[in-house]
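User: I've been trying to design a sequence by hand for this structure and keep getting stuck. Would you show me what you'd pick, starting by listing the structure so we're on the same page?

Assistant: Good idea, let's start from the same input. This is the structure you sent:
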């Protein structure tokens, strides 16, 4: 019994570190983008098209990752994807052909999409055995990895390392974490046992994978994730532009909005397991989405930069634990294994992260950024309303 619990604790720690790998690996690409733009001699439009390959690779791979996990286990997918990210990361600073870079980004995005699906499915299984919420802290480690990745390469370069050497160091770290934690992740047989225990089928549940993907509970959680991910995408791609063009913040300080949002989200996710355990997931989603919508409203309506940043912080606090609760719900759907529900929810949600900023740009172009951010606030409000009717 004691040995089983120790194995579970090791599996939890290993899953946390895989979330860190994913956040660190993906975010480390962001500071490399200017180097790639200069090396490949691209203008902004060409760079935008090139960046689509990374998102496209993730979207293509997410459904496939679910099928592969169901066939070989999440551990194999996490191990292969973690190694792929570590190997590809330095290559993104070496490639001199736009076509080769497109192919590399497609593979890099596929690795990110695969590890994203597998780590969430595995995290749900660990949580089900653990008997109390852990998904928020897992996503918190992803957020920490994102902060380290977005700042780490620049910091290493500032210390005197060449960008390539810094990328190699980060890549080796990703490989080392993945390789050392692989043995602590659940093997395929163990995963099957957990799925059978916590996803007992009901007579009225559909049997085929396609029907399960289209089941109303899966689609509901996917659409809710889509709405939440739009707010995260808005902060990533539009917060700096919004602060500079609408709130007249100097461009060298415009990134402070996303930093405030990211730090608030990371801290809140690390604290989130205790909050979810105390208040339950439904309360966290409904209250969190209301706080997030209020934060966006404050940032839109206030002329004071400090209040605008307060709004961004409230958005990060409110939105932080919404998606982890959705993944937890997806891992407990009767008759639908997590290897089906999690890829479906992840794919639909991630589409919001990719397509959302483009949609907001379209709205901003024809109306204004205030209107675009206002619609994002309404989407967060719709999560609160929609989830309040969930049984």
């Amino acid at each position: 019994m004691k040995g089983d619990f120790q194995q579970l604790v090791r599996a939890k720690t290993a899953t946390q570190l895989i979330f860190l790998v994913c956040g660190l690996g993906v975010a480390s690409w962001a500071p490399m983008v200017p180097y790639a733009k200069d090396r490949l001699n691209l203008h902004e439009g060409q760079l935008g098209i090139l960046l689509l390959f990374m998102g496209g690779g993730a979207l293509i791979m997410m459904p496939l990752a679910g099928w592969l996990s169901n066939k070989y286990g999440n551990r194999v997918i996490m191990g292969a994807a973690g190694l792929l990210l570590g190997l590809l990361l330095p290559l993104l600073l070496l490639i001199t052909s736009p076509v080769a870079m497109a192919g590399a980004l497609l593979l890099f995005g596929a690795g990110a999409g695969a590890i994203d699906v597998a780590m969430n499915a595995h995290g749900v299984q660990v949580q089900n055995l653990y008997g109390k919420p852990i998904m928020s802290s897992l996503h918190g480690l992803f957020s920490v990895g994102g902060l380290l990745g977005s700042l780490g390469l620049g910091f290493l370069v500032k210390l005197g390392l060449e960008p390539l050497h810094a990328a190699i160091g980060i890549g080796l770290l990703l490989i080392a974490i993945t390789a050392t934690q692989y043995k602590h992740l659940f093997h395929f047989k163990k995963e099957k046992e957990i799925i059978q225990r916590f996803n007992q089928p009901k007579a009225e549940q559909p049997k085929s994978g396609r029907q399960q993907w289209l089941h109303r509970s899966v689609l509901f959680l996917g659409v809710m994730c889509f709405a939440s991910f739009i707010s995260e995408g808005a902060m990533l791609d539009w917060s700096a532009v919004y602060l500079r063009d609408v709130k007249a913040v100097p461009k060298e300080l415009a990134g402070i909005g996303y930093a405030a949002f990211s730090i608030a989200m990371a801290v809140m996710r690390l604290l989130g397991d205790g909050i979810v355990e105390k208040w339950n997931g439904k309360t966290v989603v409904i209250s969190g989405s209301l706080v997030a919508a209020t934060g966006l409203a404050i940032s839109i309506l206030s002329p004071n930069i400090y209040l605008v940043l307060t709004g961004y912080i409230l958005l990060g606090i409110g939105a932080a634990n919404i998606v982890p609760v959705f993944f937890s719900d997806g891992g407990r759907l009767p008759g639908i294994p997590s290897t089906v529900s999690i890829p479906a929810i992840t794919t639909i949600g991630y589409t919001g992260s990719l397509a959302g900023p483009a949609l907001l740009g379209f709205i901003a172009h024809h109306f204004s950024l205030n209107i675009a951010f206002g619609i994002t606030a309404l989407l967060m409000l719709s999560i609160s309303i929609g989830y309040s009717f969930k049984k």
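That's my pick for every position. To get oriented when you compare it with your attempt: The domain at 2-198 is CATH 1.20.1250.20 (Growth Hormone; Chain: A;). The radius of gyration is 20 Å.
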